[in-house]
Amino acid sequence: MKSMTSRAMRAIVTVSLGAISTAAFAQADYPTRPIKLIVPFTAGGGVDTVARIVGEELKGVLGQSIVVENLPGASGMRGAETAVRAEPDGYTLLLSSAGEAAVNPHLFKNIKYDPSRDLAPISLVVKVPNVLVVNAASGMNSLDDLIAFTKSNADKASFSSSGVGNPQHLAGELLNRMASVKLTHVPYRGAAQQVTDVLGNNVTATFASYLAVASFVEAGQVKALAVTSSERIPSLPSVPAMAEHPQLKGYDVTNWFGLFAPAGTPGPVVDKLNKAVVQVLSNPVTAKKLADLGSYPSPKQPEEFKSFLATESEKFKNIITTADIKAQ
C-alpha cells in the first residue's frame, strides 16, 4: 500500500514539475503568436491612434504583431470588461484611458470590474493634458479674465466637455471649486461640437485635447488660457499651466493612457512587456510622433504605475464626490 502511495506521489510531483517547467519555458519564450490589444473606443480617436503607433513599434521589439481590436461602448467599460475576462497569458492587453481605470468605478454603480483587482498594470504610456480655450474675440486673455467674467456673469458662464465624468469635465469642476466660481457644464459627445460651440459663443469655454484645438489656436480663432497638467507642455510653451495661478496651486487633471493585462498574468510576462514599452517610448522618433498629438510618453515600472493608478483614482473620486457628478 505504501509502495503504491509513494509511486502515486512521485507521479504527481513529476507531473507538477513538468507543468511548472513547461509554464516557465512558455513565459521565457513569450510571445510566440500575435498579441491582441483592446482599445475601448472607436477607430481614429486618441486612444486608438496611440495604440497603433505604439503597437507598430512593439512589433519590432517583441517580434510579434500587435492586433488592435476596437470595442467601444458603455463609456469604455465594454472593452475593459472584455480584457478583464480574457485568459491571463499576455496575449490580450488593454490600452485604457483614465476613464476606464480611474474614473468609471466612482461614476457608475453597475460597473462589472474593479481595476485595482482585475487588471495587472504594465506601464503608463502617455499623459494627455487638456487645454482650456475661449473664443479669441471674447476679450479674455488669461485665467484671471475668465474667473472675473464668471464671477460677474454667473448666470451664463459655461464650459463644455466631451462627456459627463470624463477628465475634461472633472477639470472644469476642479476649476470651479478651487477658484470659487460656477461655470455650468455642457456635455457633448465629441470634441468637434464642443469647440464649434465656443466659436459660436454658445458656451464660454471648453476643455479639450491639444489635437482637438491646435488648428483653431494656430488660426487665431480660439485663445488658449491654460493647460490642465501640473507643468507647461512642449506643444504650447507660452501657455501657462493651471497650477501657476495663485488660486490653483496643486491643480492637475490630466487624461492618460495606460497598458494593462488581465489580473493573474505571470510576472515575467508583465516585466517583458514593460521593458518593451519603455524601449519603444524611449525612441525619439516615436516620442515625437506622440508629442505631435499632444500625448507625452510617460513610462513607469509596474509597481510605480500601480501606485500612480491608486493616487489618480482617489483624486478623481474626490472631484466626483465633491461636485456630486452623476452618470447620465
Would you write up a description of this structure?
The chain is of the alpha/beta class and 328 residues long. It folds into 2 domains: 32-128 and 254-323, 3-Layer(aba) Sandwich (D-Maltodextrin-Binding Protein, domain 2); 130-248, Periplasmic binding protein-like II (D-Maltodextrin-Binding Protein, domain 2). It is 46% helix and 19% strand. It is built from 12 helices and 11 strands. It has helices spanning 2-29, 46-62, 77-85, 98-103, 115-118, 143-152, 167-179, 191-199, 210-218, 267-281, 284-291, 302-323, and strands at residues 35-39, 66-70, 92-97, 119-128, 130-135, 158-161, 184-187, 205-209, 222-227, 255-262, 296-297. The chain has a 6-stranded mixed sheet, with helices on both faces. Strands 7-6-8-5-9 form a 5-stranded mixed sheet, sandwiched between helices. Strand 6, helix 7 (167-179) and strand 7 form a beta-alpha-beta unit. Helix 2 (46-62) crosses helix 10 (267-281) and helix 7 (167-179) crosses helix 12. Mean pLDDT is 92; it is low at 19-23. Pfam families: TctC.
